[in-house]
Amino acid sequence: MGRIPFALALCVTLAAATSSPAQDQPVSSRPSVAEVRFSDGSVVRMTLMQDNLEVITKYGKLQIPLSEIRRVEFGLHVPPDVNQQITQSIKRLASDVYKERDSATKELVQVGHFAVPSLQKASRSGDQEVAYRAVSLIKQITERVSPDLLRLRDEDVIHTAEFTVIGRINAQSIKANSSHFGDVNLKLSELRTMHLRQQGGKHELVVDATKYGSALDQWCDTGVIVDAGQRVLVTAEGQVDLWPQGPGQYVAVPKGYNTAGKGGQYLAGALIGKVGDNGKTFLVGERYEGLATDEGKLYLQIVPSPWNNASSGQYRVRLQTDHAVLAGR
Question: Which residues lie across from 132 on neighbouring strands?
Fold first, then answer.
């Protein structure tokens, strides 16, 4: 069983392509399943109950569909009530009353890593007593909490199938459902990472040689993403004419014709794939079955003929992805 970077998705649906050239169609939406890691290190598998995340970036707001998100690394999110408490407690560090200062000190230590950014600002205060107390508190908190919590950045990092977004998620929580806990609001202040998992499924599509098999840069952006560790089964059938000017003389099947195609790496007419814009190409052929070793979007292509002409015909492709053992094994 082979192991290659893999990702699968729909190029052109069979139903749309049976009688006329079809337009690329988006994959139907499915519930987003995520593995959520909390600040205490626990990991829970949940179904996310919203369609997108609103992220504020230096260039404006973005609405990012959850179906496009692969992973989220959460920054420091201080709950509003805690933020208000921190502000009041730092003001009380300047109190002339010892009990007030002592109470504020205990509150800030209790708040922990949430208070560190505000204390760092207070440590640069013109009031030397406040600055001294802030530095002392930072040291106390640093000795009590995990270094990972102290390294949290202000921004969230959202990795999508296409690019990475750095900004602040414009929410205090994310709606989710767990088989153990029911409907819940996941507080961003308690989250460290969220890895969205692709669900298995079956797809049928057509890859047209005129559009995706006449030049080396003609890659079909498929759209469905496969996670590392998913099992992948791909079968393909059909015929592609590598020299339509003389019909029937140079006909290829998905494993390719008996002559090298453009670029020389694969046989002409072979069905190949790659993951990402700069991913390494691999042979799909008439049947591929294996475990994905990477995650991302799959691009499919029919290797062009070596004679600098457009090919014709199409391959019918069936895809199956699953985290379990594939049927028939």
Answer: none
In Å, what is the CA distance from 177 to each residue of 40, 182, 185?
Answer: 20, 5, 8
Residue entry with tokens 């393909």 = 236
- pLDDT over threshold 90, residue 48: yes
Give the distance from CA 261 to its chain's centroid: 34
DSSP-derived pairing of the beta strands 52-57 and 60-65? antiparallel
The SS3 of residue 288 is strand
- Round to whole Å and give the CA distance between 78 and 190: 9
Helices (DSSP H) in 145-285: which residue ranges?
A: 147-150, 209-212
Q: How far is CA 90 from the centre of its chain?
A: 39
Task: Name the nearest CA neighbour of 78 among 51, 122, 113, 50.
Answer: 113
Cβ atoms of residues 311 and 222 within 8 Å: no
Which DSSP string do the residues of 160-193 spell out, in sequence order?
Answer: ESS-EEEEEES-SEEEEEETTTEEEEEEGGGEEE
Nearest one of 269, 248, 271 to 318, comparing CA atoms: 271
> Which of 46, 55, 63, 35 shows the shortest CA–CA distance to 194?
35
**Is pLDDT above 90 for 266?**
yes
The tens digit of pLDDT for each residue in 100-133 reads 999 999 999 999 999 999 999 999 988 888 999 9
- Per residue in 148-159, pLDDT tens? 888 899 999 999
Where do the domains of the chain lie, and which CATH numbers do they carry? 2-17+199-322 (2.60.120.430), 80-149 (1.25.10.10)
Higher-confidence position of 217 and 32: 217
Residue 199: its pLDDT value, please?
A: 66
